[in-house]
Specification:
mainly alpha, 10 helices, 76% helix, MB_O-acyltransferase, palmitoyltransferase activity, membrane, transmembrane helix
C-alpha cells in the first residue's frame, strides 16, 4: 500500500512537471520580466489579466512539482509533512494564501516569530509586522520584495479588521438576510483578491511588471473593471464554499496530494 501511494504521488508530480513544460512552450511567463514591457502593454485587457493568472498558476505548479517530490519520499518513509500548496484559483484571502500555499513556512513563522511576540507584547499588529519583516529579509531585500510584503501586511490587517464587522449570528434574521454577510465578505474578498494578485505580480515578475499591473487595474475602463470584480467575486464564492472541505481533508491527511 505504501509503495503504491509512493508510485501514485510520483506519477502525479511527473504529470504536473510535463504539463508545466508544455505550458511554457505556449505561454512565456518566465520571460515576462526580461522582455520589453511593450509586449505586455500592448495586450488587450483580458489577455493581460489572463497572462497574470498564468503567472500565478505557473508559480503554483512549480511549487507542486518541487514539494511533490520531497513529500512523496517523506510519505514513503512515514514522515509527516505539510500538505502541498493549494491551487491559487481556490484562494481569495490573504490569510488563506499564507496558511495553505506554503504550509511549512506558515507554521515556522507562526511558531517562531508571531506567537512569541504576541506572548511578549500582546500586540498582534507588531507581531505581524515583525513576521513580514522576516519574510522581506528571507526573500531578499529588493524593492519589489518590500512592496510585496507591505501589500500583504496591509491586506492581512484589513482582512482581520473587517471580518468581525461582516459576521452575523445564525439566529439573527431569516436565511435570505443571513446570506448577505457572506456576499459582503466575498465582495470585500474580491477587492482584496485584486490587490493580492497585484502584490504577487510584484513577487513573480519584479517591480516593473507589478507597476504595470497596478496601473492597468486602476486605469482600465469601467466596464472591464466591473466585469473583473464580478469574476473575482464569483471566485471568492467558490473559494468560500470549498475552503472548509479542503481544510478538513488537509488536516486529516496532510501528506496526501491535493491540488
Amino acid at each position: 500500500m505504501r509503495v503504491w501511494c509512493f508510485i501514485k504521488n510520483v506519477l502525479i508530480t511527473l504529470f504536473w512537471f510535463l504539463f508545466e513544460g508544455v505550458m511554457l512552450h505556449f505561454v512565456y511567463v518566465n520571460a515576462a520580466a526580461f522582455h520589453p514591457l511593450e509586449f505586455l502593454q500592448n495586450l488587450e485587457s483580458w489577455a493581460f489579466y489572463g497572462f497574470g493568472y498564468a503567472m500565478g498558476q505557473h508559480f503554483h505548479i512549480k511549487y507542486v512539482v518541487i514539494y511533490g517530490l520531497s513529500t512523496s519520499l517523506s510519505s514513503f518513509e512515514n514522515v509527516m509533512v505539510p500538505h502541498l500548496p493549494r491551487c491559487i484559483g481556490r484562494i481569495h484571502l490573504y490569510s488563506d494564501m499564507w496558511k495553505y500555499f506554503d504550509a511549512g513556512l506558515y507554521k515556522f513563522l507562526v511558531k517562531h516569530i508571531y506567537i512569541p511576540i504576541v506572548k511578549l507584547t500582546s500586540l498582534k499588529l507588531l507581531a505581524s509586522m515583525a513576521t513580514f519583516g522576516f519574510v522581506y529579509i528571507w526573500h531578499g531585500t529588493a524593492t519589489y520584495i518590500l512592496i510585496w510584503c507591505i501589500l500583504n501586511y496591509i491586506g492581512i490587517v484589513l482582512e482581520q479588521t473587517c471580518s468581525p464587522l461582516l459576521s452575523v449570528k445564525k439566529s439573527e434574521g431569516i436565511k435570505f438576510f443571513l446570506d448577505w454577510p457572506r456576499r459582503m465578505r466575498c465582495f470585500f474578498g474580491a477587492v482584496l483578491l485584486a490587490v493580492s494578485a497585484i502584490s504577487n505580480f510584484y513577487f513573480f515578475g519584479g517591480k516593473n511588471i507589478g507597476d504595470l499591473f497596478f496601473r492597468r487595474l486602476f486605469a482600465d475602463n469601467l466596464p472591464n473593471t466591473i466585469i473583473l470584480l464580478f469574476i473575482l467575486y464569483c471566485g471568492a464564492q467558490v473559494s468560500t464554499e470549498l475552503c472548509p472541505v479542503h481544510a478538513r481533508k488537509c488536516d486529516n491527511n496532510p501528506i496526501k496530494m491535493k491540488y
